[in-house]
């Protein structure tokens, strides 16, 4: 063991020397005017000569204070060590505005390294007391419209039909939000909507509104495409928040005033609706309009310009840009009649952005020349609507030329360009009909003459199998009717199933942070299980007689006592301050376990 530790100590310097140097700066993105905040520099190797930039826009109240953290891991014989050196400064912002902190520098292994730069926004300080920025303690239990509200805004309120609009929903709060219990989204009638929000976690920042500091987070962003013209209204969004408020005990006892309790209340907040003026696309629309509203580019190319008769050639059209590209139609291309043309293969590479879908759609079309000669494909045109100028635009490619040589398999006419109606009446058309022959290669299932299905074994089996299935289903159905007739027996058999349904509701309340509802559903689940299993009304059950009833029906004493303990804990917790989440999860798991054990014991006794 000593030799192993000695070897480990020898290898640690080698491990550290092979690490890449990481030097990072961290600070809050938004701070309040006159409030302190931390500027932290972290480096993963020991360094010297730390030089921070001049902080003319901030006061340095303290620093640097340094600390070190290290961790050694041995996994499958491989040794790894993580080291982190931290330098912390306490700063204070005295002026509103947006300020930049240039990179700092440090020397590690005789080499200079620079950190990242930072940008900090200083907002006006709110009127609340010194506590968590943007959060106030409400002791009365009444939450006003100024404490928490939501906004829903569109980046454009006057657009053309099918032009993308960014719809942003933000939450403004000055109270502690524990979670969201219910959301009523708009129906988005006359719109196509796509969710652009990339993360479920809300990133909060600080904003000062009318002298009050709010924590502001973007809840949702959607791209909506209006499908009709006119004044289109979007219904408000409604969110029910779980708000945690502090209540101070009012008592003549001086010691009681030092202890505070918290409780969770529900607050439903509704935003204002949004009205968007949608203008119809100009008429008359071009005959070959693609349906795209946005800004586009086009590229048309051939896989090869020299080919032989019956060789495959790919014509590739790439439509790229920004807009409602998902509905972009394939371009119309006029091919010479001497070509076999197949349906295009479409691939999309689109990303949803604040300006709509951005990327490209590629159309690859296989064409096969059937005659030799020099052929031209006219310029490809693609029409779209540009909302920035309010007009239709036409993208136009260069004409494409293909030289096709004879491969000796078929006679070809003279080397003239085949255009015009006469080109369709040529001898080569007969050759196309000989390209494919349908040959049957599998074994043929031949039957003797005068063979009939009626009276065969397949005919008999077709009647016998349904008859047997009918008898089996009838017996199962009669048995089910008999079981359902015995209500007590049915309740007993379904007790475990009903209990788990109630416990599932308790788990949902546990995740949403609704403590009171969690303990209530957990208690109902346990009492309901005992009532259904023992066929005893809940009104006749209590803590005193439940032990006797369970033990009389075969339950083990340890399981009975555990069940009673859980019931008493739930009753106490419903009228006491909520505990840690880990304890509630442990209580939930204990309830599932005790029901499983009782199910095993009581099955043997109850029949």
Question: What report would you give on this structure?
Answer:
There is one protein chain. The chain has 607 residues and is α+β, with helices and mostly antiparallel strands. It has nine helices and 31 strands. Strands 22, 24, 25, 26, 27, 29 and 30 form a seven-stranded mixed β-sheet that branches. A hairpin with a 2-residue loop joins β8 and β9. α5 runs antiparallel to α9, α7 packs antiparallel against α8 and α8 packs antiparallel against α9. It is extended.
Short structural summary:
The protein has 607 residues and is α+β, with helices and mostly antiparallel strands. Helix content is 24%, strand content 39%.
Task: Spell out the blueprint of helices and strands.
Layout: H1 2-17, E1 23-26, E2 30-32, E3 36-43, E4 48-51, E5 58-75, E6 78-93, E7 97-101, E8 105-108, E9 111-114, E10 118-123, E11 148-154, E12 158-160, E13 165-173, E14 176-184, E15 191-195, E16 204-209, E17 212-226, E18 230-234, E19 238-248, E20 260-270, E21 274-279, E22 289-302, E23 306-308, E24 313-323, E25 339-341, E26 345-353, E27 356-369, E28 373-377, E29 381-386, E30 391-396, E31 400-405, H2 428-432, H3 457-485, H4 487-493, H5 495-512, H6 515-534, H7 543-552, H8 557-573, H9 581-605
Parallel strand pairs: 2-10, 12-21, 22-29, 23-31
Antiparallel strand pairs: 1-3, 3-6, 4-8, 5-6, 7-10, 8-9, 11-13, 13-17, 14-19, 15-17, 16-17, 18-21, 19-20, 22-24, 24-27, 25-27, 26-27, 28-31, 29-30
């Amino acid at each position: 063991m000593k030799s192993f530790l000695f070897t480990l100590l020898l290898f640690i310097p080698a491990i550290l020397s092979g690490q890449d140097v990481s030097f990072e700066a961290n600070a809050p993105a938004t701070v309040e005017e006159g409030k302190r905040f931390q500027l932290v520099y972290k480096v993963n190797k020991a360094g010297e000569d730390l030089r921070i930039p001049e902080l003319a826009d901030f006061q340095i109240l303290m620093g640097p204070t340094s600390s070190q953290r290290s961790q050694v891991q041995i996994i499958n014989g491989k040794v790894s060590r993580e080291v982190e050196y931290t330098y912390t400064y306490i700063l204070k912002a005295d002026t509103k505005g947006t300020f930049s902190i240039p990179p700092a520098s440090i020397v590690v292994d005789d080499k200079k390294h620079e950190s990242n730069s930072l940008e900090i926004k200083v907002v006006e300080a709110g009127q609340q007391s010194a506590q968590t920025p943007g959060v106030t303690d409400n002791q009365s239990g009444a939450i006003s419209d100024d404490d928490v509200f939501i906004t829903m805004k569109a980046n454009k309120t006057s657009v053309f039909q099918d032009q993308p609009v960014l719809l942003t929903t933000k939450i403004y709060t000055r109270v502690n939000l524990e979670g969201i219990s219910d959301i009523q989204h708009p129906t988005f009638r006359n719109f196509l909507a796509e969710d652009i929000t990339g993360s479920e976690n809300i990133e909060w920042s600080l904003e000062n509104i009318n002298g009050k500091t709010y924590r502001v987070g973007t809840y949702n962003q959607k791209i909506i495409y209006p499908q009709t013209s006119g004044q289109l209204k979007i219904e408000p969004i409604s969110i029910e928040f779980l708000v945690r408020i502090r209540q101070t005990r009012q008592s003549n006892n001086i010691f009681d005033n030092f202890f505070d309790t918290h409780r969770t209340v529900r607050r439903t907040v509704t935003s204002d609706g949004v009205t968007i003026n949608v203008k119809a696309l100009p008429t008359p629309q071009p005959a070959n309009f693609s349906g795209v509203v946005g800004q586009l580019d086009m590229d048309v190319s051939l896989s090869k310009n020299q080919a032989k008769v019956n060789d495959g050639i790919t014509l590739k059209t790439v439509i790229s840009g920004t807009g409602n590209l998902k509905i972009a139609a394939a371009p119309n291309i006029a091919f010479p009649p001497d070509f076999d043309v197949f349906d295009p293969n479409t691939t999309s590479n689109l990303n949803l952005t604040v300006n709509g879908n951005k990327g490209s759609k590629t159309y690859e079309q296989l064409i096969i020349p059937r005659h030799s000669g020099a052929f031209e494909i006219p310029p490809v045109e693609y029409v779209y609507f540009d909302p920035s100028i309010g007009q239709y635009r036409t993208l136009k490619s260069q004409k494409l030329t293909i030289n096709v040589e004879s491969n000796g398999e078929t006679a070809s006419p003279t080397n003239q360009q085949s255009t015009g109606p006469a080109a369709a009446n040529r001898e080569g058309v007969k050759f196309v009909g000989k390209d494919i022959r349908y040959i049957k290669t599998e074994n043929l299932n031949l039957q003797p003459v005068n063979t009939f299905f009626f009276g065969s074994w397949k005919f008999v089996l077709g009647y016998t199998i349904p008859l047997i299935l009918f008898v089996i289903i009838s017996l199962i159905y009669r048995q089910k009717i008999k079981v359902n007739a015995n209500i007590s027996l049915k309740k007993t058999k379904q007790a475990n199933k009903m209990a788990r349904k109630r416990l599932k509701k308790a788990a949902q309340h546990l995740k949403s942070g609704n403590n009171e509802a969690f303990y209530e559903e957990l208690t109902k689940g346990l009492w309901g299980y005992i009532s259904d299993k023992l066929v005893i009304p809940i009104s006749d059950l209590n803590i005193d007689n439940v032990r006797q009833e369970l033990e009389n029906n075969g339950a083990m004493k340890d399981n009975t006592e555990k069940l009673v303990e859980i019931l008493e804990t739930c009753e106490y917790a419903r009228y006491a301050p909520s505990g840690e989440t880990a304890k509630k999860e442990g209580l939930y798991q204990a309830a599932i376990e005790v029901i499983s054990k009782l199910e095993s014991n009581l099955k043997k006794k109850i029949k």
